[in-house]
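Box 3.1 A note on notation
Throughout this textbook, protein chains are presented in two layers. The first layer is the amino acid sequence; the second is a token string describing backbone geometry. Keep the layers aligned when reading.
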Amino acid sequence: MAGVMRVLMLELVAVVVVALLLNASSAQSPGPAMAPSPTSDGVTIDQGIAYVLMLAALVVTYIIH
């Protein structure tokens, strides 16, 4: 009877150790790295073009009057 208890206890310890190792390895897995943010986007370029066109319209209006 003591031999059976010893085997069962050894199996229980092995299961607990394996469960802890599997849990620890899955909990520490890092997610995918984030992509770097773009240095310039289309909105900034469009806004710059709009300012240049407004300045050109102002200059033309000033010259005509």
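The two ends are 111 Å apart (CA to CA). The chain has a mean pLDDT of 79.
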